[in-house]
């Protein structure tokens, strides 16, 4: 009887071991760097460029299916730290404290910079003044009087744009009056287009790549030229001024992969940082980390039409 029990236990163990191996094998076969299903959480302020990257990636590798989930920066980082999100796109790098938390969990994030983005100030088209000093905006955020600003409009209280501007102004919180917030950059742009005197704070990607329903609304706003804290001239959130490090509100974009294995997150990161991905960044109006090369065909002679 005891022998039969031992034999039965051995059979059950072998069966369970085989099932676990088969499950691991099936999971590895489901996802590689070029195929499988992946959820990627994205800072809402840079969603358009990520949508473009994913569309081309899926069109190139038909076995890949990637769902883009936009969230505020605070929500995104929280999900990443709690391992609810494995692959994210952010408008900042991880802090030393955040990296330490990953080290305690024996996770080594793969951080890949891929573009330089910009925060843009926008106003209603009726506003004839298209210049603004960054100091004026920071004074307003610090609660100083007589700045001449009627109100600032942000996308989300927990967004990367709010965090960025608070860090520049060196304040813990934005003023309780004169500051408005919505949920998306499109809502900010629409509100500013309909309300004189308001200044919207948005990711420039939403201006360079507007959705079809936003094209006419974009025509109703002005993008302001900004004078930095130590500048005497005003600069625009263009590729040229970003490349020459003149625009004062530039920020780098990163894709952070915490999958811990060679999965679709690694494939997407390599694609975005590669030649095709960098060309997509260049076309979007943002500044790529590496300028894509141009292939020139050199001919030994001139071809004549009659030849």
Automatic annotation (TrEMBL):
The name this protein goes by in its record: Substrate-binding domain-containing protein
Presence of keyword Signal: yes
Keywords recorded for this protein, A-Z: Signal
Pfam family, any one: PBP_like_2
Species per Swiss-Prot/TrEMBL record: Flavobacterium endoglycinae
Limits of the PBP domain: 35-274
Keyword field contains RNA-binding: no
């Amino acid at each position: 009887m005891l022998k039969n029990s031992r034999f039965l236990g051995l059979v059950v163990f072998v069966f369970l071991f085989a099932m676990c191996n088969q499950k691991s094998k099936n999971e590895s076969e489901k996802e590689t760097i070029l195929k499988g299903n992946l959820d990627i959480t994205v800072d809402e302020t840079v969603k358009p460029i990520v949508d473009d990257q994913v569309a081309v990636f899926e069109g190139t590798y038909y076995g890949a299916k990637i769902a883009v989930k936009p969230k505020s920066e605070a929500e995104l980082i929280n999900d990443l730290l709690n391992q609810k999100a494995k692959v994210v796109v952010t408008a900042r790098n991880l802090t030393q404290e955040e990296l330490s938390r990953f080290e305690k969990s024996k996770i080594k994030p793969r951080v890949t910079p891929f573009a330089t983005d910009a925060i843009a100030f926008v106003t209603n088209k009726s506003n004839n003044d298209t210049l603004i000093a960054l100091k004026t905006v920071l004074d307003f955020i610090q609660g100083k009087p007589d700045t001449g600003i009627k109100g600032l409009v942000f996308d989300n209280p927990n967004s990367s744009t709010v965090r960025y501007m608070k860090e520049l102004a060196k304040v813990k919180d934005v003023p309780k009056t004169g500051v408005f917030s919505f949920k998306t950059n499109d809502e900010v742009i629409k509100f500013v287009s309909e309300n004189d005197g308001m200044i919207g704070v948005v990711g420039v990607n939403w201006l360079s790549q507007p959705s079809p329903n936003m094209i006419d609304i974009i025509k109703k706003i002005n993008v302001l030229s900004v004078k930095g804290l130590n500048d005497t001239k005003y600069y625009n959130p263009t590729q040229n001024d970003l490349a020459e490090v003149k625009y004062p509100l530039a920020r780098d974009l990163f894709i952070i992969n915490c999958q811990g294995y060679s999965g679709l997150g690694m494939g997407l990161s390599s694609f975005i940082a590669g030649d095709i991905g960098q060309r997509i960044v260049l076309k979007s109006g943002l500044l790529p980390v590496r300028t894509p090369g141009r292939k020139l065909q050199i001919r030994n002679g001139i071809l004549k039409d009659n030849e």
